[in-house]
Amino acid sequence: MSDLAPLPARAWRGRPAAQQPVYPDAAELAAVVADLRTRPPLVFAGEVDALRELMAAASAGEAFVLMGGDCAESFSDNTADNIRLKVQTILQMAAVLTYGASTPVVKVGRMAGQYAKPRSADTETRGGVTLPSFRGDSVNSHEFSPQARTPDPRRMLDAYLRSGTTLNLIRAFTMGGYADLREVHSWNRGFTANPAYSRFEAFAEEIDRAMRFMEAAGVDFEALRQVDFYAAHEALLLEYEDAMIRRDSRSGRLYDTSAHFLWVGERTRDVDGAHVAILQGVHNPVGVKIGPGTSPEDVFSLMDRLNPHGEPGRLSLITRMGADRIRHVLPALVEAVQADGRPVTWITDPMHGNTVTAENGYKTRDFETVMDEVRGFFEVHQALGTVPGGVHVELTGDDVTEVRGGGERIGTATLEERYETLVDPRLNHQQSLEIAFEVAEMLRS
Ligand code: PEP
Ligand code: CO
Q1: DSSP label at 9?
Q2: What is the whole-number distance in angstroms between the Cα of residue 71 and the centre of ligand 2?
Q3: Model-level pTM greater than 0.70?
Q4: CA proximity to 137, closest of 122, 166, 108, 157
């Protein structure tokens, strides 16, 4: 791939760009961006195309997408253990979902690049002091001091390098035997052995039987020791994404090589804005988060910009409506898309419409509410005869206490025990598996 990205991917520069950091030193920003442009791509065109095919299969009900990872990755949590536990959690979820869906599960980590965050305010005031908001580790530091909060472009280089090492480890795990289905299933048996999750025991038994059948029938388990695992993040930081665009020498197409899949957030999805424009110019499969205020016209405009010819697998709509609204607002959007005829891959994000502040001040989500949004998503698609293509969740492989409820019955008072996120509350390892078992049962029915 060559390292210069000509138009049309540059068209975003003329558009309004929301949620961008203000760097004090333009020359330093230019130097970092020039440096990034010379760096190797993090992902390759062939892999990106393979994911596009899989997203197309998911839009037709022939695959199911599982996207998960931190709300924001952080430099300090960029450790081997954290990466391994997240990959393990996603693989465990995927094994259960594969059985439930009876189709391949497309495994996508919200990992290896999820370092920039949109914020509701540009500044934060504490004790009379006002500083720029924390926008993620690729922009500034969470610590509340003028120096830490000043956007530093060199952080983009750090984010690039950490994304590369994360991908390297993910590739090593998923290609080196760590994804062995027998092993993954035995971890799941460990989970269902816990009395708190005994309601999933029968389901796990069934998978056991299926595995024994496969073995008896001579399935080559050795061949099942490797899986494809893709990386995704929000395409928020325009200078970074732009610097990672490369032209594929074989096809001549432009790709954003910072990740296989990129999405635009609810706050930056303005159809005439810079974020939609930058993704318009690249060939990756892309997503747009859509909230309860989205109209059918908004969806048509997004399709016109991002997938005018209706190529399957190109565009995913990631709905984040809130459990109390999804059953009311999603049907009109799904019907409009159905009538239009251009395919989209429908994915539910049951997290971002369901964030609440607990009485003790912690930003949290309730497990039951999250599940209810997933249920609503399935109900709407079932009623309309359309395809629920996947789930997108915020999770970690650790034993954190950020989301209330679930089998461990995390209560408000428990939140403070291991509340580690710098931004949104994540499902912990057990809660993630619970969701996977619940969704697997929905997929089966
Ligand atoms: C996110 O995915 O962390 C996020 C900010 O989501 P949304 O754009 O849907 O609010
Ligand atoms: Co979030």
Answers
A1: G
A2: 4
A3: yes
A4: 157
Nearest ligand, CA of residue 292?
1
Which ligand is nearest the CA of 267, by number?
Answer: 1
CATH numbers and ranges of domains, the chain: 7-179+226-443 (3.20.20.70)
Q: Of all protein residues, whose CA lies closest to atom 8 belonging to ligand 1? A: 265
Query: 371-386 b/e with 16+ CB inside 10 Å = b?
Result: bbbbbbbbbbbeeeeb
What's the rounded Cα separation, in Å, for the pair 370 and 394?
11
Overall average pLDDT of the 239-253 stretch = 97
In this structure, the residues whose C-beta lies within 6 A of any atom of ligand 1 are 71, 118, 234, 265-267, 289, 320, 352, 424
Higher pLDDT, 10 or 358: 358
Write out pLDDT tens, residues 190-229: 999 999 999 999 999 999 999 999 999 999 988 889 999 9
362: left (phi over 0), alpha (psi -120 to 50) or beta: beta
Which ligand approaches the C-alpha of residue 318 most closely?
Answer: 1
Atom 3 (ligand 1) nearest CA: 71
Q: Which residues contact 49 (CB under 8 A, 6 or more apart)?
A: 283
- For the record, the structure tokens of 319 come out as 């709905």
Distance 263 CA to ligand 2 centre (A): 13
One DSSP character per residue, 376-398 reads HHHHHHHHHT--EEEEEEEB-SS
Cβ contacts of 45 within 8 Å, gap of 6 or more:
1, 248, 250, 251, 253, 255, 283
Nearest CA to ligand 1 atom 2: 71
